[in-house]
Structure formats: C-alpha cells, structure tokens
C-alpha cells in the first residue's frame, strides 16, 4: 500500500489526500511534524516539507505539485471522464494555473499565516503566541480570494471549467484549513459558499471532516454540509 507523509492541517497534504480519496487510492497516512526535522523524513525529502508520497514500488514523490502530476501519470489515464487533470491541453493549462494560484498565491497570502501562527507554533521548539498582526492580514487577504472563487463559479460549472479538476481540490484543501480554524468568511460570496458546499459533500471529503488537531476544536461550520 502507498504511504503519504502528511500533516492534518497542512493544506498541501490535504490537496493530495483529496485526490487519493477521489481516485479511490488507499494509502497509509503517517503524520509528520516537519519542524522536528526527523532524519528518516529528510532522507525521503531533503526539503523537509509535507506531503511526501511513497508508492508501492518505493518511488518517492515529494511536494504537492509533483505528487499531483505523478498521480495523473500513474493513475489518471484509467479514470477516463473522471480524470482530474483533463486531457485537453487548454483545460490542463487552466487547471494547472489555478492549482498554482491556490498552492502558491493563496498559501503565501492566507493559509501559511493561519496554519503557522495557530497550529505549527504550538509544537515548534521556539513557538510562542500567535502574531495577531499576521492573522489580521491573512483574514483580510482571504476575502478577495473568496470573491475570485465566486466569480469563477458564476461563469463555469467548476473552477477550471465544466468538469471537476485538481483546481477544485486545491482550492478546497486551503479553504478547509481556514474553515477548521474558524477563519473562512462565508458571508463574503454566496457563489463561493455554494461551490464549497458542493465539493464538501463529496465522499472524498469525509476523512478530512473527521480530522481533529490536538487541543483545537474545529470551527462551528467545519463538519456541516449545510451552513
């Protein structure tokens, strides 16, 4: 069985967990606190970042974007119409653009600050209290992203076009972290909220909704389908 080294509130790990679940690929989950810099984990990925995927043949695939491409190459073709990276070249470009938008831009502006300040600092050797200024910035930054999601879903069936793609799961992974921490502004855009309700209701999402961080109660809407 493949193995995924992950952290429950790492949005990039959640992105890969959603893809694996959507494709019905069972994987052993090993929780990794990257700040501990375990030699065994660094041997898999010298960058020391989650997620890292190890396939049945011991192929080691580090990083969310690389893992997503690997899963498409190794498993995607058999999915036909359910393939999450579309076969059409233009659709693939748009899907990759939006995956990069959420895994890089959204992460840099929102989830990195929220998760680092509220979660990772709790376990880091040089932790400390959350920086409230950074949290305020992240909470302000998430609002235009929600409006952008709303704009996309008002003109398309899913974020990248008419079919469900990696783009939807990348966006949902990051928003789910903000939602767990009580920082998803569901009053910002009704179309974005409706899109999230649709993807949140998929069976692939259920394991994420069962996640609990030690000592942290999830936000009030986190596990609700209708909110």
TrEMBL record:
Residues 1-79 form the GST N-terminal domain. Residues 88-225 form the GST C-terminal domain. InterPro entries: Glutathione-S-Trfase_C-like, Glutathione-S-Trfase_C_sf, Glutathione_S-Trfase, Glutathione_S-Trfase_N, GST_C, Thioredoxin-like_sf. Homodimer. This is Glutathione S-transferase family protein. It comes from Methylocystis borbori. The lineage of its organism: Bacteria, Pseudomonadati, Pseudomonadota, Alphaproteobacteria, Hyphomicrobiales.
